Amino acid sequence: MTLSTQDQALLGIYLNDHLAGAVAGSNLARRLAASEREWTKADVLDRLAIELAEDRAALQDVMAAMDVSVRVSKTWAAWTAERMGRLKLNGRVFRRSPLSRVLELEAMRLGVEGKAAGWRTLRAGAAADPRLDADRLDALIDKARGQIDTLEQLRIEAAAEVFSGDS
């Protein structure tokens, strides 16, 4: 299927926006996993960080198949925004706040929800566009659902630890 010039431009904006989110999300996941080595769920965070990096690569594969160029300015902006988010103190100045874990897990969950929506949007067009691999998109959608469930469980556990007075 050939998209009009305008539709291809819109697709480029859409996919680059999702790539920017994937860059920020995978960076956050990697940092959270590194920061939470002492938490009982550190191994789960490590696995999620790897999966989110894999998903970012999958999106780049889709972009290449769809003939969409990466807009480096958007990925740099996302990289910068993720780093600026680190400046939020969450009640502590000199050491990491237990609240940071909760907020970062919430941010990751929101990001994965957005990623899943992006995969579903692409999946809706797979029947009409042979450049989109419907089976791969289905697998990515299922993977995102699992990540959402995992992040929600981690968030609930982290919040319980913070707000029960055990932190």
Question: How do you describe this structure in short?
Answer:
The chain is built from five helices and no strands.
Please explain how this structure is put together:
This protein has 167 residues and is mostly helical. The chain has one domain (5-163): Ferritin, core subunit, four-helix bundle (Ferritin, Up-down Bundle). Helices cover 76% and strands 0% of the residues. The protein has helices at 5-35, 42-65, 72-85, 98-125, 134-163. Helix 1 (5-35) packs antiparallel against helix 2, helix 1 runs parallel beside helix 3 (72-85) and helix 4 runs antiparallel to helix 5 (134-163). The protein is elongated, with a radius of gyration of 17 Å. The model has no long low-confidence stretch (mean pLDDT 88).
What would the keywords be for this entry?
single chain, 167 residues, mainly alpha, 5 helices
The number of distinct helices, counting runs of at least 4 residues, comes to 5
Radius of gyration: 17 Å
- Given as residue ranges, the uncertain stretches (5+ residues, pLDDT < 50) are none
Return the structural class: mainly alpha
Blueprint of the fold:
Blueprint: H1 5-35, H2 42-65, H3 72-85, H4 98-125, H5 134-163
Helix pairs in contact: 1-2, 1-3, 1-4, 4-5
